[in-house]
Amino acid sequence: MDPISKDLNRWISILLTVWRRRRKYKNGPSDRLLPNELKEVAAGVKILSSGLTGKRELVGKGYMDDPALLGAYLLFYWPVSYAQARYVLGYLPSRPRSVLDLGSGPAPMSFASLDHGASEVVAADRSEPALRLAAELAGEAGEPLAVRGWDPLRGEKIPDGSFDLAIMGHLLNELWVGDSDEAGKICDLIERVSGSLRKGGAVTIIEPALLLTSRRLLGIRDILVKRGFPVLSPCLFKEDCPALKKEGNTCHTDRSWEPPRTAGWADIQDSFRDA
């Protein structure tokens, strides 16, 4: 078993413990959901899947303030985001000691950073319930995580600190949606975030691999390159992205992985499709 899968399997029992405690369920198996639990989580995953893809009616909304949807995210999308972050962190030239996780939700990418070797991580999000959940996970796991409230749409300043890495996971596609200057405002935000970095620091952006979100991110990438930002990975090309020259083209990283078999992860996926 690779180190990422090993660490993720350790997290599964923690996620289940915290989720059951919050739902006031009696203790259950540490490696799987019970049938009634599976039904509840699958219903939430179906809502999230529909609302974050397709018409994307949940995008930009406070869906993580809903306990049922936050719980569904925790047991289905959290492991995916954790694995994504671990893989991407492996591309960095050095291991960041201090990390700022912006738009953290319940902090899968924060904990991925800690497991990757960071010693100081700040998780920042506008959802208080998501941050409380992140803090509860940190307490259960014995991890040194700091949480901060932060809402970029209200113009709130970047959390104080000096960081080796700022990570923005599945955040940018939910900001300023429909605004005529959406890309410009996002690039301005990234510039402000870069001001919190130590010398040699990096901003890591992870976005959904949907056609719409991928092309938007490539457009943002082009603006940042024009503003003088170097791109470290995955593409070092310093001109406009050629994928945007033809409608329907995109570019994203494809990485195979073995999803956790504990906690009925695959069963959740099958159940919400059948629901």
Topology:
Blueprint: H1 3-23, H2 35-52, H3 67-89, E1 98-102, H4 108-116, E2 120-125, H5 128-141, E3 145-149, E4 163-169, H6 182-194, E5 197-206, H7 211-226, H8 265-274
Parallel strand pairs: 1-2, 1-4, 2-3, 4-5
Helix pairs in contact: 1-3, 1-5, 2-3, 2-8, 3-4, 6-7
How would you portray this structure in words?
By secondary structure, this protein is an alpha/beta fold. The protein has one domain (3-258): Vaccinia Virus protein VP39 (Rossmann fold), CATH 3.40.50. 45% of the residues lie in helices and 12% in strands. It has helices at 3-23, 35-52, 67-89, 108-116, 128-141, 182-194, 211-226, 265-274, and strands at residues 98-102, 120-125, 145-149, 163-169, 197-206. The chain has a five-stranded parallel sheet with strand order 3-2-1-4-5, sandwiched between helices. Strand 4 (163-169), helix 6 and strand 5 form a beta-alpha-beta unit.
Descriptive tags:
275 residues, alpha/beta, Rossmann fold, five-stranded parallel beta sheet, 8 helices, 5 strands, 45% helix, globular
Second-tier CATH architecture: 3-Layer(aba) Sandwich
The CATH topology is what?
Rossmann fold
What structural class do the secondary elements suggest? alpha/beta
CATH class assignment:
Alpha Beta
Question: Would you summarize the structure shown here?
Answer:
The protein is of the alpha/beta class and 275 residues long. The chain has helices at residues 3-23, 35-52, 67-89, 108-116, 128-141, 182-194, 211-226, 265-274; strands at 98-102, 120-125, 145-149, 163-169, 197-206.
